[in-house]
Write a structure and sequence with these properties.
This is EAL domain-containing protein. The protein is an alpha/beta fold and 279 residues long. 48% of the residues lie in helices and 17% in strands. It has an eight-stranded mixed barrel, surrounded by four helices. The chain is globular and about 50 Å long. The structure holds ligand C2E and magnesium ion (MG) (3 copies).
Length: 279
């Protein structure tokens, strides 16, 4: 059954769904109240320029704490939110909150940073998506040039021509588009052929042990070169070791994210980190 979920998300979701049904049901009902109870929080993970080692942007990553489950992974609850029809509301909340945070950050730290927000397949299929995004940006006086949306490959499968139209509308308003988890899904190269992305994010699976794993090394070297020839910037996801970072620096990768530099952190911590590392 094609339920519109990304393959990797579905893989993460399905074991729990089938083996621990009770728990899923209670998560599901808790998710219905999560917005109202203000249980969500937006965390941020820095995106770092490999050459200067400065923070140039952040990725917004949703966190959920409720009275019985601490820190439920978005890899678990986002697919549930999609299935029960809550993802649009949650997505709007995330974008709003992110805009609010960045208005605060702007006052404390005048150099502009780019912020990336994840959109899941269901959200992307929302007919009113563009209008909703534009409205939230306008309401918050947020310059669209500083917003990047991250999409996974799988979401573009269903209706490519509609997806192209949507992406072009978003791009003509100034937003940037990243293809997330690149290499993990199907027909990756076809996507590069048909869509005008700005950024390619190489999945962590390929970054892992890249300094020791010659297969990963070859794949990533080629991906970086190809992306650059197509005029895309490259972000390496999930960089954990100096060896991995070294390899990426030596092979012309543009940006990296990963525990090596910082885990995703709360907004207040982000401000401290920016003041510490970017000054
Ligand atoms: P993603 O967009 O690919 O985000 C990267 C994930 O990798 C994040 O997991 C991040 O915490 C994790 N990560 C970052 N650096 C490292 C590292 O060095 N090592 C390892 N092992 N992991 C690292 P997280 O925050 O659990 O999010 C999982 C996924 O949930 C995201 O994958 C994204 O697809 C989805 N997601 C998160 N927030 C949102 C949201 O607001 N909306 C939507 N639609 N999806 C979201
Ligand atoms: Mg992402
Ligand atoms: Mg990713
Ligand atoms: Mg992912």
């Amino acid at each position: 059954e094609n339920n519109g979920l990304g393959l990797n998300q579905y893989e993460v979701y399905s074991p729990a769904f089938h083996t621990n049904n009770k728990n899923e049901v209670s998560l599901e009902s808790k998710l219905h109240d999560a917005l109202e109870k203000e249980e969500f929080e937006v965390f941020y993970q820095p995106k770092v320029d490999i050459k200067s080692n400065k923070i140039v942007g952040v990725e917004a990553l949703l966190r959920w704490n409720n009275d019985t489950h601490n820190n439920v992974s978005p890899a678990i609850f986002i697919p549930i939110a999609e299935q029960i029809g809550l993802i649009d509301k949650i997505g709007e909340w995330v974008l709003n909150k992110t805009c609010e945070h960045f208005k605060i950050l702007e006052k404390k730290y005048p150099k502009k940073l780019e912020v990336s927000v994840n959109f899941s397949p269901r959200q992307f299929n929302d007919k009113l998506l563009e209008q909703k995004i534009f409205k939230i940006l306008a309401d918050n006086y947020f310059n669209p040039h500083y917003l990047e949306i991250e999409l996974t490959e799988s979401l573009l499968v269903k209706n490519p021509s509609l997806a192209v139209k949507k992406l072009n509308k978003l791009k003509s308003a100034g937003l940037k588009i990243a293809i997330d988890d690149f290499g993990k899904g199907y027909s990756s190269l076809g996507y590069l052929q048909h869509f005008n992305f700005d950024t390619l994010k190489i999945d962590r699976d390929f970054i892992k042990n890249i300094d020791a794993n010659y297969k990963n090394a070859s794949i990533v070297r080629c991906l970086i070169q190809m992306a650059h020839q197509l005029n895309l910037k490259v972000v390496a996801e999930g960089v954990e070791t100096p060896g991995e970072l070294n390899f990426l620096a030596n092979n012309d990768c543009d940006f990296f994210q990963g525990y090596l530099f910082s885990r995703p952190i709360a907004f207040d911590q982000l401000i401290d980190l920016i003041n510490l590392r970017n000054s």
